[in-house]
Amino acid sequence: MAPQLNSPGEYVLIRTKDELERLEMQYNVWQSNIGYLLHPAITQREKLRVADVGTGTGIWLRDLSKMLPENCQLDGFDLFDAMFFKKTPRPTNVSFIQHNLLKPFPAQFTGQYDVVNVRAMVVALSSDEWEPALRNLMSLLRPGGYIQWLDCSAKDFIAKGATEGRVPINAERWTELLRTTANALGKTPNVNALYRIFRENGLEDCSERVYPLDNPVGRDELNRAVLDGIHNFMIAALNGRTFEWAKSADQVMAMKEAAQQDLRNLNCWFSYNVYVVVGRKA
Ligand SMILES: C[S@@+](CC[C@H](N)C(=O)[O-])C[C@H]1O[C@@H](n2cnc3c(N)ncnc32)[C@H](O)[C@@H]1O
């Protein structure tokens, strides 16, 4: 039988201290390539109310709280609070709400936000869940409020820059492992359809920017984030399932070590595109 999700909306990543650190490393690499926390179309002002949905460790809210006036209210939503602000004290204007973004938000939150931010839901949502998720997130916005969604696609992961004449077979196999497994679990959303979905759901002034993660600053961190991220994804994917191409954690670890050797010996690095899509509620 083909592998299946253990539950609808299953989040295929583990929640360990290592994964928490990896998410923050990945966040820093994305930031070093993107350069802003809020898209330039979004006006920063007093008393802004901001939601970060699927907030994870809350690192984006932590950075945003340093940039915005103290009278702004910043709310993090996530299925789990296990990762939220474990390392640093939480600013007084930042709060956490436990909520599944695929379920209707309680009335006290609907129509309340000037900005809704979503980032890296690629292994959280199945391909057919992106549009219902967007509609649900839009319910949080006030008229004139913006949604900003940053994401990537398993289809885009590649190994770049190998020594001339050499093919980084093992590094390529590592990204192929992500693609094939994500595909088997229905987690290969078409990230470049986000912009169209924004427009079809009535958002205005939509824009899409694509950032290839090519900044040499942070290249080592990106390599680590991809090596460990795919590893953590595969460990979660193997929970109660096996795949023709990956039957055990030991096998996955051997593939990871081989990919790591390619990075070292062939001077190559991992890269993928990050899509930043924004739209405004009429
Ligand atoms: C890959 S992490 C990204 C975290 C953060 N946005 C970042 O960029 O570092 C995805 C987060 O989404 C959360 N998540 C997954 N499915 C969710 C759902 N259905 N509703 C709310 N949060 C969800 C996970 O618990 C996790 O914290």
Distance separating the two termini: 46 Å
Low-pLDDT runs:
none
What is the CATH superfamily label? Answer: Vaccinia Virus protein VP39
> Based on DSSP secondary structure assignment, what is the total number of beta strands?
9
Task: Provide the domain count.
Answer: 1
The CATH topology turns out to be Rossmann fold
How would you summarize the topology of this molecule?
Blueprint: H1 17-34, E1 49-53, H2 59-67, E2 73-78, E3 94-98, E4 113-119, H3 130-138, E5 141-151, E6 158-160, H4 169-184, H5 194-200, E7 204-212, H6 219-237, H7 249-265, E8 269-271, E9 273-280
Parallel strand pairs: 1-2, 1-4, 2-3, 4-5
Antiparallel strand pairs: 5-9, 6-8, 7-9
Helix pairs in contact: 1-6, 4-6, 4-7, 6-7
Question: What would you note in describing this structure?
Answer:
The strands form two sheets. Strands 3-2-1-4-5-9-7 form a seven-stranded mixed sheet, with helices on both faces. A two-stranded antiparallel sheet has the order 6-8. Helix content is 34%, strand content 20%. The termini are far apart. The radius of gyration is 19 Å and the shape is globular. It has a single domain, classed as Rossmann fold. It is built from seven helices and nine strands, in the order H-E-H-E-E-E-H-E-E-H-H-E-H-H-E-E. It has helices at 17-34, 59-67, 130-138, 169-184, 194-200, 219-237, 249-265, and strands at 49-53, 73-78, 94-98, 113-119, 141-151, 158-160, 204-212, 269-271, 273-280. The mean pLDDT is 94. It has 282 residues and is of the alpha/beta class.
Keywords:
alpha/beta, Rossmann fold, 7-stranded mixed sheet, single chain, 20% strand, 282 residues
